[in-house]
Amino acid sequence: MLIGILQTGLAPEALAPAMGDYPDMFAKLLAGHGFTFRTYKVVEGEFPASVTDCDGWLITGSRHGVYEDHAWIPPLEQFIRDSFVAHVPMVGVCFGHQIIAQAMGGKVERYAGGWAVGATDYDFGGEKLTLNAWHRDQVTEAPTAATVIATNDFCTNAALLYDDRALTVQAHPEFRPEFVDGLMKTRGKGLVPDEVMAEATAKLGAPLQDKTMAAQIAAFFKAPRSLQAKSA
Predict the structure, then answer these.
(1) What is the pTM of this model?
(2) CB 3.0-4.6 Å disulfide test: which of 92, 154, 175, 211 passes with 59?
(3) pLDDT digit string, tens, across residues 135-151
(4) Is 155 a catalytic site residue?
């Protein structure tokens, strides 16, 4: 199964040589599930010719906000809506989670409650998953087409399911602890409050359920669709 990775941001230059860019992280996260990958740097204006060029789409995280004025954001939102109509499955992570929600009529804002960083617990319908987080923005109003499937006290709409067409999560299952540590030392200083970073640093060794989340993502991509993908 060919998954198109729609890359909406770039890993920090100081970290990428040793830890890889975001598409590399997703390839590692989903290794062993039978996928092949093709990357499109939408952050640089590179888009697929059609929503059916791949069997599914994965939208990455980004340092940008979905509400910012970038030339590539409106066409990405239209691509999301076209994929939804064509029943081509989509997975969105962090920025990807937010941009799918915004494209489908939800609301994304810079959260007044501040940052979530590092190992964070989420309630997936009674199952606790601990995943790494790195975000200040979040989905404050879910689209009517979405069902909330994970939450916590900090992030009400932590994961959303749009029937069999989109699965999105605010957390970063692809982020390893060493990458979160690197983000705190590069992008975090002066941006994330010291107390938030101190708490995240203390939890760097916490067990993560990233493999559980990866299995859920893989199962979603492979599930029979209610309609076969059709040309847009």
Answers:
(1) 0.95
(2) 92
(3) 999 999 999 999 999 99
(4) no
